[in-house]
Design brief:
The structure is a homodimer. In chain A, helix 1 crosses helix 9. In chain A, strand 9, helix 6 and strand 10 form a beta-alpha-beta unit. The first copy, chain A, is an alpha/beta fold. Chain A is built from nine helices and twelve strands. In chain A, the strands form two sheets. In chain A, strands 8-7-6-9-10-11-12 form a seven-stranded parallel β-sheet. Chain A has a five-stranded parallel β-sheet with strand order 2-1-3-4-5, with helices on one face. The interface between A and B is large, with 58 and 58 residues.
Chain lengths: 311, 311
């Protein structure tokens, strides 16, 4: 029997999610009719995002579950009209995407790929042999779920990885540090530094003139975490002086990064538009399809929200 | 006691190897005097390459071993004046470097990094979400030591990897194919194709108009193996038509690639100067130091050549 799935997460996302959802339903063996426009009393499941079209869930009388597209449910969990089960999104794709973006850019800087991309001038420069990853010292600041996963992926590629976190961690293959002395130890050896800390009052501007000066000359910085971890003026000064060789930045104090911001034009900066840790349509669609499958089979839902706890 | 090590591998390599060798000797606890100019009758070990200064080993009366800097010993193994033990180089760095170059360039194409490097124009384009590695189909042609190692590294990053080899292989996590039908199966799904075959009469021009046409439109090719695996005219035509989206080429029929070759100027080609699989000074130096340590300790040498077998 056909399952009616209402996509109530906005028309922009419809373009990104329609094909992945149809594919995920097909893979899961579900005959789903995914639409922006099912009449409320015919809807079996709702794919939901907070800024979508639904405020009142009362007319959705036969709906078996509301499947949130994001991890956060703070805007919907208190709705008095929502009596159906609510599931949040736990997207393995977010962590996987972060690992891919971080390893890709660390390898790019390690191998000096930019010089090849920008140096297609007919001159065969084969005298520069980059060191092996085992001889390349990488620092990772922040060893939470994402930081740890990225540090482990880099260590698996044989990079010489040291990590720092506020509380001391113990991760096989990673030289783990904590505290102020530990931060200095990681910075002083980091030829490539990856920021994966949360933004807190303690971590704001952790990368400032003082910490930049402690890094090896020509070190490279990769930031897919939060813009305010970096004192932008201090970083620009360090890039201008050559103390920092390159910065690849995915996050900024103001996003979108304004077109007149000096990062865009700086020859030693690569701006990427906050793409390192997106929820991915393909993996998110699989979570949605799995929950529809479970609902049709009478099984319990994945990631169902505890309405009293609020998450 | 100081061990006298003669560097007889050419003055160009002296610049690359001097510091790594000194470091490797220090790490191994060997008090070595590394020089280009020890008198022959004072030399304990010779670091050797075929185009270096030594033809006649007769005056090296106290030399305990000749340590070849490369894997191939065909130019020295038949020398009638060489009575000392001869060791060839087995450099783990060659395989590690290949893995790093291949994963770096596959991630680069997977993530679309070139568009960011070349697109620092102030426009925040965050609507393009790349697929996850698990949804990116990579093909690896050739599953010998290097091909297998690269395929496994890509699978560890969760890429959807299929491989082809002449004889059927069985590698966990890799969809292994062989034969003509198997080649088509790998080509037809390869969004990114990595060439790691040996060059034989069977593999020359394996990438020609016919095989290129079987790949998905816009596929990317990465070749760190041998230049003649590719029919250059056919590849250039496929790049011009858009059938192939990009080619990153490290090897060529003629090396250095002549400055007038169309690959240099083609907007969809990245030339790198045969750097993917170099013997690396740091890891090669560790092999040399280990053999000196073994010689001084009276232990048997690593990778000692069987003079009758010739390798």
């Amino acid at each position: 029997m056909t399952v009616n799935v209402l996509f109530a997460a906005g028309e922009t996302r419809w373009e990104q999610y329609r094909a992945p959802l149809d594919e995920a339903f097909a893979e899961a063996g579900i005959d789903a009719d995914l639409s922006l426009n099912h009449p409320p009393d015919t809807v079996d499941y709702i794919v939901f995002a907070p800024n979508g079209p639904i405020d009142d869930f009362t007319p959705y009388t036969r709906t078996k579950a509301v499947l949130n597209l994001w991890a956060g449910v703070e805007k919907i969990v208190g709705s008095r009209t929502l009596t159906q089960p609510l599931c949040r999104m736990v997207d393995s794709g977010l962590e996987e995407g972060m690992i891919e973006w971080v390893t890709g850019h660390v390898l790019r800087h390690h191998l000096g790929i930019d010089a090849h991309i920008n140096g297609q001038d007919g001159v065969w420069r084969n005298g520069i042999i980059p060191p092996l990853a085992r001889d390349r010292r990488v620092g990772v600041l922040g060893l939470g779920a994402l930081g740890r996963a990225c540090a482990e992926a880099l260590a698996a590629l044989r990079f010489d990885v040291a990590g720092w976190s506020r509380s001391q961690k113990d991760i096989p293959g990673i030289a783990c540090h904590s505290g102020d002395d530990g931060l200095s130890a990681v910075l002083e050896r980091a030829e490539i530094l990856v920021l994966l800390m949360p933004l807190t009052p303690h971590t704001e501007n952790v990368i400032d003139a003082g910490t930049l000066a402690r890094m090896p000359r020509g070190a490279m910085i990769v930031n897919p975490a939060r813009g305010p971890l970096i004192d932008d003026d201090a970083l620009l000064a360090a890039l201008d002086s050559g103390q920092i060789g390159h910065a690849t930045l995915d996050v900024f104090r103001d996003e979108p990064l304004p077109p007149e911001h000096p990062y865009w034009a700086h020859p030693r900066v690569t701006v990427t538009p906050h793409i390192a840790s997106e929820t991915r349509p393909a993996s998110a669609a699989r979570v949605i399809a799995e929950n529809v499958r479970r609902g049709e089979a009478g099984e319990s839902f994945l990631f169902e929200v505890d309405r009293d706890a609020g998450y």
